[in-house]
Structure formats: C-alpha cells, structure tokens
Write a structure and sequence with these properties.
heterodimer, A: 128 residues, alpha+beta, Sufe protein. Chain: A, B: alpha/beta, Aspartate Aminotransferase, domain 2, 2 domains, 7-stranded mixed beta sheet, binds pyridoxal-5'-phosphate, binds zinc ion
C-alpha cells in the first residue's frame, strides 16, 4: 500500500505554481520549523480576482502537494471564493491524505488566508 | 534499480539462513518438546543453534533465551532487573535519552511504578562518558541500560569500559546490542555484560526472532507464562526455523565480520566525505566511533520526508528522523538528544550500507542526494530566509 494517493504524488513530484512573485499584492507565511512544515504564499490580485499565485514550502510530501493543489484551486478565482477554501477541499482534491497528515492541508488553507489578510491590510477599502 | 541503504531498519536474509530454515519448515516440523525422535530432531536443531550463537558472543548456551526479537528481549531484560532491584529495595535506573523506544517506553512504565531514572547525557557526538556513568551510580541503583550502538546515528559506546564500571559497583548492566551483534565483536564476559538483547533481522536473519543473554545467576522474570520452554523463562513453542536461521546468519556474519567492517567502513567514509560537500550540512554522531555502515546527516533548509520520497523515486531506500516520517510532531528523540534543534532535526537522512554495497552505489547516492537537496532548497522559504540573511544558519 502506497503512503500517498497518485494525485498527491503527482503534485509532490511536479508541484504547480512553485516560486515567488516579487511584486505580490499579498504574502502569507504559516507554520514553523518546530512542527516541520512551513508554507509561503504569494498572490497577485486584479479586479478582485486571484490572477496569479506562487508558493514556497519547507515540508513533507503532503505539505508540498497540499500547497500545490491549493494554488490550483484558487488561481483565476474571485478573492471571495479563495477566502473560502478549506483544508477539506484541498485534501479531497488530492484524493485524500493519511489522517495524521491532515494538518499539512490545514497549513495550505491558513497560508492562503494569511496572504489574503495581508492583501486586505494593504487595501482596507476592499474589505466588505 | 534499487539501492537498499536502510540496513539499520532491516537486512536481507542471507541465502544460507533461508536454506537452513527450509528443511525445518518442509519436513522437520516436529515440536521440540515432544519426546519421540521426530520431535527430538527439532530439539537438536534448536540446541545446536543455541550453542552456535553462544559461541559467537562467548556465552554459555544456558544463558540464552530465544525471544520474538529485540523489543521483547529489551522488555524482559529491563523488567527482570527492575524486579530484582525491587526485591533488594533498589529503585534507581541509569540509561540514556537516545535509547530505542523498546527500552525508553519500558523505563517510562517503571518510572510510573515508582522507579527513578537518570538519563546520561550523550553529548554532541552521541557518546556516553564513562566517568559520568560512574558518578551517577548510587547505593539505590539496580540497573544500567545503555545501547551498544545507536540505531539512528550509529555511535558505538565503550561497552567494555561501561561494563567494568557496573561490575565494580555491583550494578546489573544491560545493553541493547541489536545494532551491534553480527557487525561488531561482542564478548559478554570480557565486556562485563549481565543482560544483552539481539535481533536476527539486523544481521541477515529472519524477522520476529531474537535472543536475550542473561548471565548465569541473573534471574529473569517471565513476560510470557506458559510451558517449560526456554528453561521456564519464556512460554510458547519455539520458532525453530527462525532460530536456526538466526544462528546460521550470525555464524556467517561473525566469520566475515572483520573483513566486512573494513570494507563497509571505507564506503561509509567516502559517503560521508561526499555528502559533506553539501553546504550547510552536518554529520550526526561521532565520525570515528560509529557502525561500519551508518551515515546520518542533517541538511539545513529542507524536510526529511520529501527528501526520502524523491530518493525513493531514484531507487534509493533510506530513512529520516523528521517528524513527518514518524507520524508525531517531534523529530527524532535521538537527534534532539545530541542537541540538534528542531529546525535542522527535521532535515535528517540516515543511510545504512549493507555488506553488498558498492563504490558505484555510493557515488550514485552522493550525486542524487546532492541534486535532491538542492532541488528542495530551491523552493524552501526557510532556505530563502537563510540565504538572504533574514535568518541565521545553524549548520
Ligand atoms: C537498537 C534497537 N533496539 C531494538 C530494536 C527492536 O528490534 P525488533 O524489531 O527485533 O523488535 C531495534 C530495531 O528496530 C533496534 O534498532
Ligand atoms: Zn507534514
């Protein structure tokens, strides 16, 4: 029995949207070195739509795959929708994660929320 | 292609061990406790195995109890010594923080039961200091349990010196020699060992079988009550094929020990030299006093599980002490015990070479570990902060 689903391994081996956005409109970093997973998300936002997203991750296979999947799920989506992304949705899109790895997908959700919070703090007028 | 570099986890059963087991599975399946000739043949095979193993570690055959492996031997050794201590009114045990969980969890159980525990410092190099052991021994001490060789970082303790100190103070000395037996010389008498645990699958024998050496006069407490097998010290019909496979594997390992150790140590040192070229990396454990095949590194800025998965894609079987490989939030207790902070302990890699390792394999491992570490650092936010000066390098 493989540790991870094919989907997880695909996103782990070929992570989508890896990198940085130098002039990002929102940046969020979550996790810490103590627990072993750290994620950083960079967002580009135009007309309330996430036009580009990049990530950097220090972490296990499930953390890298979750970051990658999360970026795919919000890219091109309205900010209001991105804000609602849950870790469950990330895990489901990956065809599931082992129970003890669910915290890695929570980090992906939190990283996006953190980047959006940063965006709103730079553009308070956008906050409904 | 597969490069098996995880011999500390388990080893390939030797051809001779399997060959020795088969007849006992096919035809010689008699119960060694039965009195008819067919059963007594199995008994003979069992006792021959006991004699063979005893000879390798310089014990008396009567001093060996066959167990289901290293964990059971550790449990029985420690609980027996504690029971003897309890009867003598002694409730202090000395060990180290980097023992195998079969030892540590048993000690934790005893702690809840009123025993006090002193865990000796294993320092940055993963070595116990004999003078610190001697200083820790008190009138109340009933047991010292220190592993011969560490399963993660491979450091080899000065067992004879530690044993001599215990003998001088008349304290029982147990050593978990699971990683040492079959790889390093063991002489229970010269080393002053009262109790020793070993496991067949670490020296090319089958899984689920091991032995406990208990010096004559050291009374064992049963973990398993039952029949009169093993002189009443462990109930249950013996795993005759497994035990015979174990003895065969051990004889073989012992016969080639010096030659193997020399060859594998040279490959190990080349592997260490190659991996040291990776910037901001560090070898874990003493560079000289370590098991012939053991290499353990920390690489700053990356996490161990992703490293293992990518090495697996390249055909390399290895292991890591990262939290995400253990299923807990904490990285390896061994790495923490030698003072590695969480940040770098998560990025550890253990490679344990076997007797059939080749120079080509070692060069392949070096090349691929370098590539994978560089690739993972390429999108690690931790590495970015280190490189930009936002965070300070630890290694
Ligand atoms: C040092 C040490 N002690 C004990 C054990 C447990 O041995 P077994 O798997 O035979 O129970 C191991 C193996 O993982 C080990 O490396
Ligand atoms: Zn993780």
């Amino acid at each position: 029995m493989a540790l991870y689903s094919e989907k997880v391994m695909d996103h782990f081996r070929n992570p989508r949207n890896v990198g940085v956005i130098e002039d990002a409109d929102g940046v969020g970093e979550v996790g810490n070195a103590k627990c072993g997973d750290i994620m950083k998300m960079y967002l580009k936002i135009r007309d309330d739509v996430v036009t580009d997203v990049k990530f950097e991750t220090f972490g296990c296979g499930s953390a890298i795959a979750s970051s990658s999947m999360a970026t795919e799920l919000i890219k091109g989506k309205p900010v209001s929708e991105a804000m609602k992304l849950t870790n469950k949705a990330v895990a489901e899109a990956l065809d599931g994660l082992p129970a003890y790895k669910m915290h890695c997908s929570v980090l992906a959700e939190e990283a996006i929320q953190s980047a959006l919070t940063d965006y709103y703090s730079r553009h308070p007028e956008k906050r409904e | 292609m597969r490069i098996y570099a995880d011999n500390a986890a388990t080893t390939q059963p030797s051809h001779a061990a399997i060959e020795a087991m088969l007849p006992l599975l096919w035809e010689g399946y008699g119960n060694p406790s039965s009195l008819y000739t067919f059963g007594q043949r199995a008994k003979e095979a069992l006792e021959q195995a006991r004699a063979d193993i005893a000879e390798v570690i310089r014990a008396d055959p009567k001093e060996l109890v066959f167990t289901s492996g290293g964990s059971e031997a550790d449990n029985q050794a420690i609980l027996s010594a504690a029971e003897l201590g309890r009867k003598a009114g002694k409730r202090h045990i000395i060990s180290t923080a980097f023992e195998h969980h079969a030892v540590l969890h048993t000690l934790n159980k005893l702690e809840k039961d009123g025993f006090t525990l002193t865990l000796l410092d294993v320092h940055e190099n993963g070595m116990v200091r004999p003078e610190e052991l001697e200083a820790a021994i008190g009138d109340d001490t009933c047991l010292v349990t220190i592993m011969s060789a560490n399963n993660e970082i491979g450091t080899v303790q000065p067992v004879r010196e530690l044993g001599a100190i215990c003998a001088k103070h008349a304290v029982l000395f147990h050593t978990d020699a699971v990683q040492a037996v079959g790889h390093l010389p063991v002489d229970v008498k010269a080393d002053h060992i009262d109790l020793l645990s070993a496991s067949a699958h670490k020296f090319h024998g089958p899984k689920g079988v091991g032995f406990l050496y208990a010096r004559k006069g050291v009374r064992l407490t049963n973990l398993i009550e039952g029949g009169a097998q093993e002189n009443g010290r462990r109930g249950g019909t013996e795993n005759v094929p497994g035990i015979v496979g174990m003895a065969t594997a051990l004889k073989e390992s012992a016969a080639r020990m010096a030659e193997n150790a020399e060859r594998i140590s040279a490959l190990r040192d080349r592997l260490i030299e190659g991996l040291r070229e990776i910037p901001h990396s560090a070898l874990n454990g003493d560079s000289v006093r370590r098991l012939p095949g053991n290499v353990n590194f920390c690489f700053e800025g990356i996490e161990g599980e992703s490293l293992l998965l990518l090495l697996d894609d390249r055909g390399i079987c290895a292991s890591s002490g990262s939290a995400c490989t253990s299923g807990s939030l904490d990285p390896s207790h061994v790495l923490l015990a030698i003072g590695r902070v969480h940040d770098v302990a998560h990025g550890s890699l253990r490679l344990s070479l076997g007797e059939d390792a080749t120079e080509e394999e070692v060069e392949y491992i070096i090349r691929n570990v370098k590539e994978v570490v560089a690739y993972l650092r390429g999108f690690s936010p931790v590495w970015r902060d280190l490189m930009s000066g936002k965070a300070q390098f630890i290694l």
